[in-house]
Design brief:
With about 140 residues, this protein is an alpha/beta fold. It has a domain at about 45-135: Nucleotidyltransferase, domain 5 (2-Layer Sandwich), CATH 3.30.420. The chain is built from three helices and seven strands; from the N terminus they run αββββαβαββ. It is rod-shaped. The termini are far apart.
Length: about 140
């Protein structure tokens, strides 16, 4: 009886083919991936690319909004920026005529909520011709 124990051989894993496949996958993903830079939204309002001039109408209503949120209706500053105050001022200036063109001029740093409030009040009063004033982009 032969009781000699054969030495166990360690199993070998051939890593060459595994490394080849991994490198091929790496190259495939590098080539197929588009390296798109995620850009941040940069908005500088208000500017306009078009140089078309807007006709000046003698009878119109102008709403100006400052950076601090102060409203001016036809050049006259309002006491506060509540919608009721804006509505009363628009009714007084327009004389109830909602067919007049309405122009909203807001500072570039004014909050959008102020512009939306002015548009909402004007829409509720029946103004249908609402213009947003911009400046031409400096060259």
């Amino acid at each position: 009886m032969n009781l000699n124990v054969r030495p166990r051989t360690q199993p070998e894993v051939n890593l060459t083919s595994l490394i080849d496949v991994v490198l091929l996958l790496l190259i495939f993903f590098m080539v197929s991936t588009s390296f798109v830079k995620q850009s941040q939204i940069a908005i500088n309002l208000p500017e306009s690319d078009s140089a078309s001039a807007v006709e000046e109408v003698a009878d119109q209503v102008d709403i100006m909004i400052t950076e601090a949120g102060t409203f001016l209706v036809n050049g006259r500053e309002l006491v506060n920026s509540r919608p009721e105050t804006i509505r009363n001022a628009l009714q007084k200036v327009s004389g109830g005529n909602s067919d007049l063109p309405l122009t909203i001029s807001a500072d570039a740093n004014a909050r959008h909520q102020y512009v939306v409030t002015a548009m909402d009040v004007a829409g509720k009063l029946g103004f249908t011709t609402i213009n947003i004033a911009t400046v031409n982009e400096s060259e």
